[in-house]
Amino acid sequence: AGGPGCYVCYWLVGDTQEKEGILPERAEEAKLKAKYPSLGQKPGGSDFLMKRLQKGQKYFDSGDYNMAKAKMKNKQLPSAGPDKNLVTGDHIPTPQDLPQRKSSLVTSKLAGGQVE
Amino acid sequence: MFLKFSLRSVFYGAGGGNDIQWCFSQVKGAVDDDVAEADIISTVEFNHSGELLATGDKGGRVVIFQQEQENKIQSHSRGEYNVYSTFQSHEPEFDYLKSLEIEEKINKIRWLPQKNAAQFLLSTNDKTIKLWKISERDKRPEGYNLKEEDGRYRDPTTVTTLRVPVFRPMDLMVEASPRRIFANAHTYHINSISINSDYETYLSADDLRINLWHLEITDRSFNIVDIKPANMEELTEVITAAEFHPNSCNTFVYSSSKGTIRLCDMRASALCDRHSKLFEEPEDPSNRSFFSEIISSISDVKFSHSGRYMMTRDYLSVKIWDLNMENRPVETYQVHEYLRSKLCSLYENDCIFDKFECCWNGSDSVVMTGSYNNFFRMFDRNTKRDITLEASRENNKPRTVLKPRKVCASGKRKKDEISVDSLDFNKKILHTAWHPKENIIAVATTNNLYIFQDKVN
C-alpha cells in the first residue's frame, strides 16, 4: 500500500518529517492503532514482558478445574478464545485447550530418508 | 588482510554479492510440506574443527553429521556430511509444582573442544542443560570364558580350558551418553549457553538471570547476573542472549530486549549486575514509534573469532560493534529493510517476535543471517557487498551455483525479483552456521537442513 496510505498518515501524524525511514514505521503504527484502539501506550511495559516470560506455556491445574466445574454446575465452562496465553486467574483452562501430549518418540527425519 | 582481499578480487572478479560463489551441496530432512512440530529445527552448530555438525529440534532430538574424508581424486567438492549419531537429548516434562509443561525443544547446542577420542557437547531446553559424550566403538571383547558370544552365560561346569578374552574389530558404533545433567537452576526459560575459554566453566542465561557452572559439578551453580526487579510490575527488559568472550575467560556479554548489550568482567565482583561496558546506539526520539522497542530487541549476539568485535542481530539489521566503542556500532547492515512498511501485519501475525541468529565466517570477514521466504543474507565487511540467497529444493543439483535473489520493495517489479507481498513469512531461516575454517555453511529452514559450499575449481 504505497502512495495513498503514506499521505493519509502524513496528515494524521501532523508534522513535517523529512526522513524516508520514519514515514513507513509511523504509518504502520497508525494502522495498528486504528485496528486496536485499546492497545497500550507502552509496548515495552510489564504486561507485554510478562507474556514473554510465560512464552505461551499451557498449563492445567486439576484443582482449579474441578473447583470451577463445581461452581458452574449448570453453566457452560468458558472455552479458550484465540488468546491462549492468559495468565492465571483470567481463565480456567480445560483439558481440551491443552495440546496433545507427545506420543512415542521417533527418529528425526534428518537422520533418515533423504540423504543427498 | 586488506591487501590479500584486493588480490583475490583481481583474480576472481566480482561474483554476485561477494567473491564467493555458493553452490548447493546437500539437503537433509523430509520433502513433504506437512511439517510435524517435532521436526522443526531449533539449533545448528559446527564443532571446533568443522568435522561435525549438530542440529537440535523441537522434539528434543539431536542429530550429528560428520564430514567424510575428502576424496582426493574427486577434488571438485569437499567431503559430504552424513549422519554420525542421533539421540533423544531432552524429553517433555511436567513441572508439578507450577502445573507447567516443560518443552523438550533444544534451544542451543554448544560443542566442547576435543580433548580426547570422544566428543562432548552441551545441549539445553528451557530448564535443563545436559553434557553429552559421543564416543566411537570399533572393537569389542571376544572369547569370554563364562559367557557365550551372544551374551548367555555358560554353565561353569562345562568350562574345561581357560582363555584370555581379546579385542576384535567390529562395525563402527557411535554412542551418545549423558554424562552430566545440570538441572533446577533456572526459573525462567534458558535462551543461551556459552562455554568459557577456560574449558572448565560455562554460563547459562534465562530471561532474567545468568548462571555460571563448572562442567564437573551439577549440584551447584553461581548466579552472576540477576536483573529481576523486586516488583515484577517494574520489569522493563529481559535478557535475550549471552556469550563468553572467546579469549578472555573473565569477560562475557549479554543482550537485552531493549537493544542494549552489557559487557561484564567477573573479576570486578561476584555478582555482575553492574556492567563494565554498556553498548547502545542512541535513538533519535523523533523516530520513535510503537514498534521501536520491539524491533530493537536483540535476538542474537556473537563475538568475532578474534574477540575484537561482536555482532548483534535485531529484527531488521545486523550490527558490528568494536568492543572499544560503546556509543554506536562500527558497521550496520540492513537485512530486510523493506519490512519496515509491513510492521503492522508482522506484529499481528507475531513474526515481529521471530528470533533470527547470525554468524561469522572463520576469518571474520563475512557475516550471515537468515530472513523470510527461506532467504538468507551475507554481508562482506571488506567489500561492503551483500548477497541474498535462497534455500530451496529447486536448486538442488550439486555444484549448481546459487542465483542471487532480490526483493522488490515497491513499485515496478523487475524480472526475477520478488515483491514483498509475495514473501512467505512461514518460511523463516532462523538458524545458520558457518564452518570454522572453510566456506561451508549450514542453513536450517523449518524442517530441512541445507549445506552449501563455495565453488571449488
UniProtKB/TrEMBL annotation, chain A:
Pfam families, per database record: Endosulfine
Segments of this protein annotated with the region Disordered: 75-116
Location(s) in or outside the cell: Cytoplasm
Domain of life: Eukaryota
Protein task: Protein phosphatase inhibitor that specifically inhibits protein phosphatase 2A (PP2A) during mitosis.
Transmembrane segments: none
Biological processes annotated in GO: cell division
GO cellular component: cytoplasm
Keyword terms of this UniProt record: Cell cycle, Cell division, Cytoplasm, Mitosis, Phosphoprotein, Protein phosphatase inhibitor
Family: Belongs to the endosulfine family.
Native source organism of the sequence: Catagonus wagneri
One of the record's GO molecular function terms: protein phosphatase inhibitor activity
Name used for this protein in its record: Alpha-endosulfine
Keyword Phosphoprotein belongs to the record: yes
InterPro entries, alphabetized: Endosulphine
TrEMBL record, chain B:
A single GO molecular function term of this UniProt record: protein phosphatase regulator activity
Keyword list, A-Z: Repeat, WD repeat
Any single Gene Ontology cellular-component annotation: glutamatergic synapse
Origin superkingdom: Eukaryota
InterPro entries on file: PP2A_PR55 (IPR000009), PP2A_PR55_CS (IPR018067), WD40/YVTN_repeat-like_dom_sf (IPR015943), WD40_repeat_dom_sf (IPR036322), WD40_rpt (IPR001680)
Annotated signal peptide: none
Gene Ontology process terms (BP): regulation of chromosome segregation; response to morphine
SUPFAM superfamilies in the record: WD40 repeat-like
Family: Belongs to the phosphatase 2A regulatory subunit B family.
PANTHER family: PROTEIN PHOSPHATASE PP2A REGULATORY SUBUNIT B
Protein's name according to its UniProt entry: Serine/threonine-protein phosphatase 2A 55 kDa regulatory subunit B
Annotated organism of origin: Sus scrofa (Pig)
Lineage: Eukaryota, Metazoa, Chordata, Craniata, Vertebrata
Recorded name of the encoding gene: PPP2R2A
